Amino acid sequence: MKRLFRSISLLVTIVFALALLASMAVIYISPAKIHFLALSGFLFPALWVVNLLLLLIHIARKSPRFLLPLIVLALSWNQWNNVFRLSGEKSPEDMNRPLKVISYNTRMFDYYEWSDQQNTPEAIYEYLRAENPDIICFQEYFTSNRKEGYLPNQTRARFRALGYQHIEYLYDNGQGTGYGIATFSRYPIVNKGSLPFRDSKNMAIFTDLNVDGKIIRVFNNHLESIGFKENDFNVIDSLKFEMDEQQRQGIKQIVNKMSRAFRQRSSQAEILSRHINNSPYPVIVCGDFNDTPISYVYRTMRGDLKDAFRESGSGMGGTYNGRLPSLRIDYIFHDPAFNSYDFKRHKIEYSDHYPVSTIIEMNPGKKE
Predict the structure, then answer these.
(1) Measured between alpha carbons, how far is residue 280 from residues 142, 152, 189, 201, 215 in Å?
(2) Regarding the domain delimited by 98-361, which CATH topology (the fold level of the hierarchy) does it fall under?
(3) Which tens digits make up the pLDDT trace of 149-190?
(4) C-alpha angle 185/186/192, rounded to 5°?
């Protein structure tokens, strides 16, 4: 019996170690080549914790098998730091040229009242006014002449204090209204451009800002969404061990949607990565990537940049506010020459995303 137990224990340890390594492989393999592998990245946090538990169990039992989970945990330590941070670094009092940056997918400022809250656009504005950012990157920016609170002049007036705006509508309904993406800045805009994606409802823009004589380029990105509908969530909620035909068809549709989104996001990330790498100025990269830190998209988009969450975030930092488990899919990256502090995920319930913010120090160690 003891021999059987040891054999099962060894098998379980090997399986979970290999599963953790496989879940890390997704960051190196484009979903355009093997799309189903991208799903394993979602399992990484759970697999890491299981391997940690196995390590502790084997150590407690004084079993040499502790070496296997120890090795895979060590190999995955850098990726774990993308997922979880114990505590964030606070900003020093004497920062040189700090910029407060917020990135927020507003879900059209709750135009269809998904949040079941009243006067959401004004509530979002009050939150942002209290935060007093220097730069705001909006995804799913939306204005309409059909409903009070969403008029384009009203929306722009709310952020008049920032002074400068770059708005690009993917769908323009005329008279300056539509659906798109926007960057608002306290500093002058000296150049701007849009980066629409092929066959997509998503896009990116870049905005060059003159910050006290120094030009920086801000990329504001909204990568491909999966596009789950209410019926898809109902299928997930109703799953049982034995599925009927309707559920099987529902699962097939969900997998097809995810596969399409994985492939398109990988292509979009590669395009954006080239633009970021070719920028003539230091960059700040914000947006809703619709993918986790254990993904090909994250690795491609980040490149050599710093992730503000890794620099000063805490916890898991989940930014998705929906019916699936909270995942970190909204990011702020920045030039490695900059420092960032006070990364926060703001738990306000006005959208299916939580806004994220950080304070970026452009010239660390230098005094004016």
Answers:
(1) 30, 32, 15, 28, 9
(2) Deoxyribonuclease I; Chain A (3.60.10)
(3) 889 888 888 888 898 999 999 888 777 789 999 999 999 999
(4) 35
